[in-house]
Amino acid sequence: MYSHGSESLIKQARDIQEAELKKFYRRLAKLLQGKELGHEAMDSLQRLHLILSATKFTRTADLSSLCAQLLRSLESRQSDGPTHSLMQTLPILNTIITHSPECLTEDHLTLLSKKIVDWLRYASITQGGGASSGGFFTGPRSRQPVPTAELDGTVSGDFFTVLCVGQGFTDDQWMNVYSFSMLRHWLLTYHSVPSDDRSEVDGSVVSMVSATSSSSRLLPPKERLREKAFQYCLRLIEQSDRKALKRTDTELQKACLVEAVCILDCVCVEDTSLVYRTFPCVKALFGRLSSDLTFARVLLPIAQFYLNHGEMATVDCESVWKLVFGRFPAELFNSPFLAHELLRFLRLNLESLQLRVPEYTRSFPNLLKFLAWDSPAVVDDFVDLLPSLVTAETAVELLHTMLDLPCLSATLLLQLRSTCSPISEPGGRGLLSLDAFRSASLRGLFLYLLRTEAGSGDTIDRLSTLHELLAEAADWPRVVQCAQTVPVLLHIFFSAVVTIADEKLSAHLILVMLERSSLLLNIPTYIKEIHRVFSCHLLRLCKLRPSLVVDQSHELLEFAGTTANVYSKAEIYTHVVWALGEYLSVSSDSRCSVRLITSCFEALEAVLFEITSSAPPPGAACPVPRVITTLMSALAKLASRSHDLIPRVSLFLSKLRTVTRGGSVAWCTDEEDLVAIVMRGEELWSLLKTPGVAQSVLTPGFQEILLQSPLLLIEKCSIIRVHQKHKKLAYHSPLNN
């Protein structure tokens, strides 16, 4: 958060009017014409920096003339002049470049590149201020120049870099530090600005000149900048291998390594001839750091380098991906920084990873640990990444894994807690789940959840046992957060899977949904939401491939014929019944026989008779009215395709009217719901009195036919009034029950 004073300055910068801004630019331009920049000029440059930073998304200002003037002032002030003006000018130029890169000309690029080269490579190697030779009467003339030192305390044996230390810095050393801080951004800007190519040289020639010449002054400005950036970064990598005397310097080494590898990647992208000179150094760096996960922030840029250039250099990248997709998520899932950086790396390189890194899609059990641990922080990343993890080979296991994410969340907590003893709840009771986690006989259940890659089986046999062991975790905040995320991602999963699923995979997914509807961690809101998602996408799969209903009729009928599902899984049960009534038809699949229709009719009839002839089981609420009306409609649809069944459904519907005349019934306590159920029964009963009309109206897709050509109905049947009365009610989806 900003302080009150900072917020006030930012607000002033954002609220500045256009006229005032132009006046400010004119005054600054005059100040920059002076031989030296005074305090007023320095203050104005700082204010310009603030204005540009605070309004970069909301304001477009023409900065080309100001940029040119700043560059001229940079050129006219030699490195032995006042450092404070240069140190103010360079960051402002960097901000202007970010804000308006189009204001740079080729001459501007050349000028600033030359300056950066000089500051990077030719800064002095003695400490600022010098050192006294001792004595009371020691004066400035007796001070001896002292060389800069390395972080391990030894004298620097090469050119100055940001990792050199001393009691003080000279002006050009400060400019070295400033230049390095903006080098990567400048290289990217330089690369994106079109060049007149007055000095285009073949890459191999440039590389040869760079490698063999004692001076790179023969190179054109752009190539010379790359070469000096390359040398500077190699020097930093060498310096980072020294053991720093101070802990803060160790962190500085890591930060500089990150920047150095990123810059090397940048110059190799621009000039591929540098790849062969760079890879030995980067490969050695990876070998030195890969066993120490405290260097994870450095290892990710190295992975980026391997991804971008490994194929060209024909190097084996397997060890890199084992680290990135293996140890990182498995051991650092609770590091917010690594989670952010790794998921950002994946999003930025998604296409390349899918094409060239097979380990990526197999690593989803490991990557999902970030989501299981801190769902709110990373859910947006997985919204982008999840479709890329869905393939024909991974879809089923991925679905199971996502459904068990709350279990994974609990298991990760137990994994961390298992190192602490004893663990107990606030009331003093020990955690049974932790005892189970430590039990050798149950360890396999948890190890499956903690697996690092796919391919060891779609799921485990003892899921219900696992859910019982983790029952006490159902109200843990981290587990609840994770459970709230899963339905959103399931929608994304199914939207992706329908684009690649063939009939076999679609059938498998339907079976998984039916099976897993009763195998979920016992969080009531979670179960309800998962059933809702399953209902939506089971219907979607059936609509895309109606033949699935015939293929999976045995499993669907087994589910629909289980009366207990009416009470515990009303949402998904309603949609399964609707799909059976809608798509068990010759018009959907020529294999649909009268025998199959009759079998389905009898199963649904038995359930409907049972739930409307007795009170609900102890502890269960009355059946949802929509379940009853969907069952009645499904029976009517099936009877219209096998007319021998019409008397049976008509008899039930007529009995329903008789039974309800006496008032409330045990299976429906709401009067309005009962009236609606009876009205639906009467409408279907009236429709079935004319089997020919019923068969037409209850045909799959009847609503679409009506919308396209209502006249077809007139041609098919003269009882127009019946059609108009039933056209909305007969084509009856769970969504409008």
TrEMBL record:
GO terms for cellular component: AP-5 adaptor complex. Residues 59-211 form the AP-5 complex subunit zeta-1 N-terminal TPR domain. It comes from the Eukaryota. Residues 252-369 form the AP-5 complex subunit zeta-1 ARM repeats domain. Residues 381-701 form the AP-5 complex subunit zeta-1 C-terminal TPR domain. This is Adaptor related protein complex 5 subunit zeta 1. The gene is AP5Z1.
